[in-house]
Amino acid sequence: MIGWQTVSRDSLFTRLDFRSKLALMGVLTTVALLWENPLWGGILAGATLLACLVAGVTWRYLMRLLRLLAPFFIFILFMQGFFAGPLITARTGQTALTPVWRFPAHWPLVGGAMLLREGLLYGLNIIFKTLTMTLVVPLAIFTTDINAMLIGLVQLRVPYKIAFVVSSALRFFPLLAGELRAILEAQQLRGLDVERLPLTRRLALYARVAVPLILGALVKSQQLEVVLQAKAFTGDSQRTYLHEARLQGADYGLMAGMALFLAAVLVAYFAWGVGRFGVPAV
Questions:
Q1: I need a labelling partner for 44 at 20 to 30 A (CA). Which of 7, 138, 238, 261 fits?
Q2: Separation between Cα atoms, residue 190 and residue 178, nearest integer Å
Q3: pLDDT per residue over 237-268, tens digit each?
Q4: How far apart are the first and last CA of the chain?
């Protein structure tokens, strides 16, 4: 089960301002969406994974995340392998595609369908895009205190009500994860081994678990509403804060580095085609 993790280890990355981390998220996401070459996409995804480990996100959490995404990645890989041929021809002009495997021609519906090498490479490209954009979330969110995140959003001129809603939602995730864990542990104490259940029964169990989980979330949201009304919460941005978020030298260095990196990527992509989809020669 994917839970919520807060990086408590003090490091350079945890001391960065949330605004500079937002710049990092924006640049990495933009580059991941731009690059179509699986080699460059894999390098970017690997670098993001390494940054998560350096920042303090645990290897165990990352492995759980990868296991959760693995079925989706396998589905994408084979879907692109079988059906991305026309798209690749339209984008690259390449008509001679390389079949890796073919269904027997006498099979109904799928007879003669080919698994293309170029389609598999394009599927890898989509996988690396998705992986990079997934990993930047724990990289920035898990290494930032929620109060510092709220102050950073307000200083970015985000309306206070929106910033408060975002911070409140992030506070709810650990509570919901804890409740889900408690419900599943209660089922296990009753002798139910969730991991050994067939997939259909496991899905039915999760559907039943969702009912008390949703009801608990509604109760907590109502309690929060009562507390806010009791404090006469208006969402006025003219407020004072116990702590202030200030950009330090490391923040400016990170944002400048990200700006230079993005500029270099754009120039290399549009001028020399670095990062465009291409099939290496064998």
A1: 7
A2: 19
A3: 667 666 777 889 999 999 999 999 999 999 99
A4: 41
